[in-house]
Every structure is written in structure tokens, then in C-alpha cells.
Design a protein that fits this description.
Structural class: alpha+beta
CATH topology of the largest domain: Glutamine Phosphoribosylpyrophosphate, subunit 1, domain 1
Distance between the termini: 28 Å
Largest sheet: 7 strands, antiparallel
Shape: elongated
Strand content: 25-35%
CATH architecture of the largest domain: 4-Layer Sandwich
Number of strands: 23
């Protein structure tokens, strides 16, 4: 579905490279590949070994860097970021990478996720004399690392990370080193690759494909990776629990060509569609998917149930994301501008409409109505994930419980509200079966927004791993 309409938005995407003469340019292309993870702002910071220089702005990657001379941002290391704000307001000060300078050296931070105890930590730091430049939770890490005048190194970073509660993937750049870290539960994705002799770190492996890099491995939960001219160095900064990768990365957020925790996103979505067809078949003439993230699941559903898979809805790719505003009247207009029915395909037909998820339900209402106005005889809605009933605290801009339609209405009531002839969701067991193919590698997924089983709890001083 459409992030700006639906109400699910990934907080951010991060990209870093070490040891390449065209570090800034490759970071620009890497950010393009993960643009779907954030459209409100973008930035790049480059290190030439002596100093850090940055360029950032509000808007899409193309808009931010259209007047930037990336060829003049010389250096063999760079870190980049695309942002969608869940913490902090939409101002230039909160656009990352955040860049800080001190007498002992500079540091740039790029962060994907959410630090749940940031407010408490910020209060403690301010009481000790810290002055914050932004309202972003990311800045807390910089102050923790530099507390009591410490030098930025593995020890100060590990100590700072150990105080954070939440889900996060960090890339940290100094003049002479790059660091990458993943939270102990491994909720957010982060991988490392190689392009020539250079190392690359990114939220999604599609960024590696974009610049011709090869995948090396996942950064592990609770791991701090140091990258410099001598190579890679790894250490644990926290006890590693069972990994709980965010299920919504597979359901909706990630690009279908990405590999997340050794699982291809497209393949997992197709398996979700197959499992959904087994659990909730419908007597119909055809299967369609809602553009674009539902196409894989719809294809799998159609193959499993033995019905033709057709393009019943077309997405207008020339309506920019920035057009859509978060007001209800413009959201309704946005659906009409973004999506159009293929009338000749669906008129007089009984249609199974596969979607990846339902959040508020407002978009589903309009799509079902659009299909019926175009002549569909019946519309059977099938959702390739369990119902979303709980807020996310780990870096997805999920609506509050009162705005989540599945938290307030039964399936029968939702079916009536959206105007469908029937509705069914994929079970939690079906989703896990589709995603977790090898438990020795994958271990598990976070389904907190669906089940209320939160793998990391905010109220605990240390990380808590709940084997839900």
C-alpha cells in the first residue's frame, strides 16, 4: 500500500561506505535505493581523514542533492541517511547524519529505529550540563559517548550503546574510523557488504545491488563493528538474545529485492500469500493486488488457489509522495490520484483483493468502493499479515491504538465498514512459517504490533528479551 496514505512509515534508512575514492557519490546512489525508508530529509557526511563535511536538507534525495557538488566532497569514507520522523519534528536540525565537532575530533551519526528511553536519558544528560541541538532521539547517543570528556572509540561507544533501550541500527563516522551497531534484539535490519576493497553498510541489501557491491553478512544483534584501513573488527556490547527481526520489514516496509536476515523479501511475501490462500480461500474469478507491496502476496495467493492473477489496480507513478498531506480530505484525494481501477478486467467479476495490511481502514474503504464503482460484482479482501492491533515502539510510525481499526472492531465489523463481501487475515503462525524458513539462522520475528508481545520493554533498565 501507499505509506503516505496508509499510515505505516519506516523511521529511517542508513548507508555507509569506507575505503572508496567516490564515497560521496556512491552514498548518494545508495540513498536512492533506500528512499522508500524515508522521504522527509536526506544527508551525507564525508570524511577525508582529517575532517568531516556534511550536506543535508529537507525532501527527497534528488531534491536535496540537485545543487550539491558531490564531486567536491572529497574523502574515502561517508555516511548517509534518509529520514521519516517518528521522534523529533520535521526541521532541518533533525535531518541526519547529525554532525558534531569538538576539540578531540568530530563525529557523525546516522540512526534507524527508536530509542525508547531517550527522554529519560536526555533529562539526565541535561542535568549534567549537556546542551542539545535537536529534538531527535539520535542525539542522545552522541552525548552519552562524549560524557565526562571521553574520546570516541570502541569503549565509549559500547558503554553508550549499553545504556540505550529500544531498537536501533547505528552508523557512526569519525575522521579515522566507521562504526556500525545493531540493538541486542536485532529488530532493525543492518548488513555489511564489499565493493572492491571498500566496505559498505546499509539498512537493506538492495543498496548493495545499486552500487555493485556484494553482500558479506548481517551485522549481528548486540554487535559493534569497527571499520578502518586495517579492516573489520567485531565486539559484543550487550548479551545477545534470540533475534526478533521486525515482521513488518517483510510484510510491507522493505524493498522486494532485499535480503533481510538471509530471507528474500519477495519470496517471503509470496509465501505469505500462499499461506493466506490455504487459510482463507474465496469463491471468486480472479486475484488482484494493491500496488505495489502486495503484488508478491497476491501472486502467491493466486498460484495456490488456482485463479488467474490480474492487474486490477494501476498506480500512477508520477504523483510525488510530497503531494500527499496527512489530512483526511487530502488523503482521500490522494487515493484517487494514486490508484486507478482497470475497469475492463474487473467489471462483472468476483474479485479477491490481496493487501499486505490494514491500519486505519480509510484507504481500504476507498479502494473497495473504487472497485465496486468500476463494476466488480464482489470484493473479497484478504490481508497477508495478522491484524495490527498495537502501536510500535521500535521505529515504525504506527498509529495509536485508538486509530487502529483492528484494535477497535471485529472482523465482521471491519468487513461491513470497508464495504467488502468478506475479509480474512493471515494467522500469526502462517506469517511466521512464511518468513522463518531456517530457525537456526533466523531465530524469530517481532510481531508486537500484531500480538502485543514486545521483545524489548521500556520500563526495564537493561534490555529484556522476551521469548514470545
Amino acid at each position: 500500500m501507499l505509506a503516505e496514505i496508509k499510515g505505516i512509515n519506516e523511521e529511517c534508512g542508513v548507508f555507509g561506505i569506507w575505503g572508496h575514492d567516490k564515497a560521496a557519490e556512491l552514498t548518494y546512489y545508495g540513498l536512492h535505493s533506500i528512499q522508500h525508508r524515508g522521504q522527509e530529509g536526506a544527508g551525507i557526511v564525508v570524511s577525508n581523514g582529517l575532517e568531516l563535511k556534511g550536506y543535508k536538507g529537507l525532501g527527497l534525495v534528488n531534491d536535496v542533492f540537485k545543487n550539491a557538488r558531490l564531486d567536491e566532497m572529497s574523502g574515502k569514507a561517508a555516511v548517509g541517511h534518509v529520514r521519516y520522523s517518528t521522534q523529533g519534528s520535521k526541521v532541518i536540525e533533525n535531518v541526519q547524519p547529525l554532525l558534531f565537532s569538538s576539540q578531540s575530533g568530530s563525529i557523525a551519526l546516522a540512526h534507524n529505529g527508536n530509542i525508547m528511553n531517550a527522554y529519560k536519558l536526555r533529562g539526565q544528560l541535561e542535568a549534567q550540563g549537556s546542551i542539545f541541538q535537536s529534538s531527535s532521539d539520535t542525539e542522545v547517543l552522541a552525548h552519552l559517548m562524549k560524557r565526562n570528556g571521553r574520546i570516541i572509540n570502541e569503549e565509549s561507544i559500547a558503554d553508550a550503546l549499553h545504556q540505550l533501550v529500544g531498537a536501533y541500527a547505528f552508523i557512526i563516522l569519525t575522521e579515522d574510523k566507521m562504526y556500525a551497531a545493531l540493538d541486542p534484539a536485532g529488530i532493525r535490519p543492518l548488513s555489511i557488504g564489499r565493493v572492491g576493497d571498500a566496505y559498505v553498510v546499509a539498512s537493506e541489501t538492495c543498496a548493495f545491488d545499486q552500487i555493485g557491491a556484494t553482500f558479506e553478512r548481517e551485522i549481528l544483534p548486540g554487535e559493534l563493528m569497527t571499520i578502518d584501513d586495517t579492516g573489520l573488527k567485531s565486539r559484543r556490547f550487550a548479551i545477545r538474545g534470540h533475534r526478533k527481526m521486525c515482521a513488518m520489514e517483510y510484510v510491507y516496509l522493505a524493498r522486494p529485492d532485499s535480503e533481510i536476515n538471509h530471507v528474500n523479501v519477495h519470496a517471503s511475501r509470496k509465501r505469505m500469500g500462499r499461506e493466506l490462500a490455504k487459510e482463507a480461500p474465496a469463491d471468486a474469478d480472479m486475484v488482484i493486488g494493491v500496488p505495489d507491496s502486495s503484488f508478491s502476496a497476491a501472486n502467491g495467493y493466486a498460484e495456490e488457489i488456482g485463479l488467474p492473477y490480474e492487474i486490477g489496480i494501476v498506480k500512477n507513478r508520477y504523483v510525488g509522495r510530497t503531494f500527499i498531506q496527512p489530512s483526511q480530505d487530502l488523503r482521500e484525494l490522494g487515493v484517487k490520484m494514486k490508484l486507478s481501477p482497470v475497469r475492463s478486467m474487473i467489471e462483472g467479476k468476483r474479485v479477491i483483493m490481496v493487501d499486505d495490511s490494514i491500519v486505519r481502514g480509510t484507504t481500504s474503504i476507498r479502494i473497495v468502493k473504487m472497485l465496486k464503482d468500476a463494476g466488480a460484482k464482489e470484493v473479497h479482501v484478504r490481508i497477508a499479515s495478522p491484524a495490527i492491533k498495537n502501536p510500535c515502539y521500535y521505529g515504525i510510525d504506527m498509529s495509536t491504538t485508538k486509530e487502529l481499526i483492528a484494535a477497535n472492531y471485529s472482523e465482521n465489523e471491519i468487513c461491513e465498514i470497508i464495504g467488502a463481501d468478506s475479509i480474512a487475515y493471515l494467522s500469526e503462525e502462517g506469517m511466521e512459517k512464511a518468513i522463518v524458513k531456517d530457525k537456526t539462522i533466523h531465530q524469530g520475528i517481532c510481531t508486537a504490533c500484531m500480538t502485543g508481545k514486545y521483545p524489548v520493554k521500556e520500563e526495564e533498565k537493561e534490555f529484556s528479551f522476551v521469548n514470545a
